Amino acid sequence: MLLDFFPSRTLTIYLAKMFAVRIVAVLGMLVMVLLMLDLLGKTGDILAVEGNTNAEVWLYASLRAPQLVSRFLPYSVLLATIITLAGMNQNSEVISMKAAGMSAHQILAPLLLIGLVVAAISFAFNERIVTRATATLSAWENVEFAAVPEDRGARTNVYFNDGTDVLLGGTLSGRGDQSVLTDVTFYDRDDGGMIKRQITADRATFASPGWRLENADSFDVATANSERLDSIVVAEGVEIAQVELRRVDADAQPLGELSQSIDALRGADRRTGELEAKWWHKISGPLSAVLMPLLGAVAGFGLARSGKLFQRAIIGMALGFAYFVVDNAALAMGSFGGYPPLLAAWAPFFLFLLVGETVLVRTEE
């Protein structure tokens, strides 16, 4: 029966509760330390902006903390696994459970269950909170901690090529046909790349095709004459697909929105391998919390009095951190096109699942 995989109800609750408390404690410690170190470097930049006060520092902390929680939650599960199992080994609890007829997998079962719960919470937390915090913080950092943009999906300092011509914008906001550029400069260039005319405007809207500049100033380089234009359409070759390409930030978009961005880019014949790998990693990343108890399990077995408990803890930690190194390397390879997106996101997970299971079976089962 499936329930035979778990120890008794009392022991399951005991192990699960102890493991969960240690995850929360380790995560809280890591986030507080790392957030304080981050604030040491950012507080000066935030307060250097006129009008910013301690309230903006707290705002930065509230936006940065979810990112740190998301990034270091799997590390917390790994460290909590090692702390929990090493302590139980030191107190001969593991020996007692094995003497009662429990296998290593049964001892780990409550920890794996908590890891699965943590993975589900992590996925929901990333989708609902981390993506929004990342979008807001990125937009705020793009304006160098000035007023937070109302459009959290706004981009700053964007440019688009229309043949030899160049369209520059200080900010890009809105979506689709409602996209708006502000602080606009258009360079009309000849085939040799020399500027023939420069047009500036406070605002440009998508004219389908092209971009409509209102109340623009035109400067002719050859004659050095300036002219006031009520309205002019420029850069007719700059399409919405190019505009949407500038917006895609996989870390700031939930799965549904990222899927739409990938479909739009694929329809425009743009390369989407990197985004597809990150799409899959939004699922495989949280599931690493299930993997950590298996990789750190080596710390909980063996005789504590043999003097090798510390060595086993180091081995468990090394296995866990090796997973994160390989995971990041695989994502990087996927970004460069070296791995298919699906393989880049899932290969490290299944590789270390087999490694952890092999180590456990060969040493304890």
UniProtKB/TrEMBL annotation:
Places the protein is found: Cell membrane
Major localization class: membrane
Organism whose genome encodes this protein: Aurantiacibacter rhizosphaerae
Source organism, top-level taxon: Bacteria
Alphabetical keyword list: Cell membrane, Membrane, Transmembrane, Transmembrane helix
Signal peptide positions on this chain: none
Residue stretches spanning the membrane: 12-37, 68-86, 107-125, 313-336, 342-361
GO cellular component terms, A-Z: ATP-binding cassette (ABC) transporter complex
The name this protein goes by in its record: LPS export ABC transporter permease LptG
Gene assigned in the entry: lptG
